[in-house]
Write a structure and sequence with these properties.
Helix content: 10-25%
Radius of gyration: 17 Å
Distance between the termini: 35 Å
Shape: globular
Largest sheet: 8 strands, mixed
Oligomer: single chain
Strand content: 5-15%
Strand order of the largest sheet: 4-3-2-5-6-7-8-9
Structural class: alpha/beta
Length: 286
Amino acid sequence: MRQRRTPRDSAPDHTPHRTTHPTGSHTAPHPTTDTARAAPHHAARHHAAPHGTTQHRTRNTRNGGHIMKIGIIGAGHIGGNLTRRLTALGHDVSVANSRGPHTLGDLAEETGATPVPVADAARGAEVVVITIPVKAVPDLPSGLLDGAAPGVAVIDTGNYYPRERDGRIDAIEDGLTESRWTEQQIGHPVIKAFNGIYAHNIIDAARPQGASGRFALPVAGDDEAAKRVVRELIDEIGFDTVDAGGIDDSWRQQPDTPVYGLSADADGIAKALAAAPRERPAAFRA
């Protein structure tokens, strides 16, 4: 099952954006590896939450009812909807943005999440989600992850938009993948996920494991243990996953690739990853 639309940048912190028409052609970002291989298809198979959300926390059923401590940095459309979905599943969520916790009262009241300063968002967290503009990543507090749980999995949802928002970043222009650059800024491995999904689909398109028409998301990263945690969490949120390789392979899911903005099952996502051309489109270069 496939649905092809074009994500739009409607969130202050992060939502996929494209300059091409929804029916236009698709080209891929510049690669950083020499191997043009298809990403393997490994759909996650774990217990997932049913479609829909509830207000405030209820005990979830993942891993026998384990409640994870999760920190979300960025409260735009992606960060906001991840906060909604993860608290509805029963997780202990702290959320932060660049404007301070006093601006997050409505989201906290709606979801039961705890608003915190950015410097405290990762404290004790087993998973940290960084969902802010790429240009803002170097401004994250030094030692952000020092107080996180051992083996913390860090999810990077970012996309590099040099013309519309981020300005020129030389290393990315020279071929470094966006998430590798983010790793270098924060000094910690990341897992690239949620960078090509419409924010509303986090809520509206979530489906139980095994449901007909369940969509899948690509997930890339070098830390296999962290990747496994992220894939299990995405499965619980309501999506299958496809292993998109390591961070040096994550150009396959950057803006304007076939998988970017694609709503499809695991087979469709794997085929789109394999079809990604190697040249970064002019529209996504400075």
